[in-house]
Request: fold
Amino acid sequence: MTKLPYLASGASLWRGYDYYVDHKVLSWEPAEPGAYPQQFDGVVLGNGDKPYEVHIDIAHPKKSTCTCPFAEGRHVICKHMVALYFTIYPAEADELLHAQERWEAEEVAREVAHRAETWRYVKGLKKAELQEGLYRALLEIDDLRYRRRWL
Ligand SMILES: [Zn+2]
Reply:
């Protein structure tokens, strides 16, 4: 089952994370009795001073609601729901940040490895292959420039 924050768009996920970090969740409480409630109500500050009423359903995230203009009347996950979720489950906010940091570190490592591999490849080429490769690369650059003009 995909957890609520990961049903949000990337922008809503990270805005929600920021809202959680900035303590924009003013209050929250379980919306049902029991030791392991699945539904919660909260009040979350918006961009201005106007707070929104947020209801999240952990088991059925798409049933979550928020009174903000983005989410009202739609079955979407907004940043206020994400902020409420992370306020209730702070360990998952930490996990998101760590996963992001791991991904970024791996991305840097991949780029370094890719450049080293490309350099090894170029060093291994003969002169005729280099001329051919350079010619193709220049055409490709021209092609990219030409295409960008029309985008
Ligand atoms: Zn909202």
In short: The mean pLDDT is 94. The first strand starts at residue 25 and ends at 30. Residues 16 and 79 are 4 Å apart (CA to CA). The pocket of zinc ion is lined by residues 52, 66, 68, 70-71, 78, 80 (CB under 6 Å).
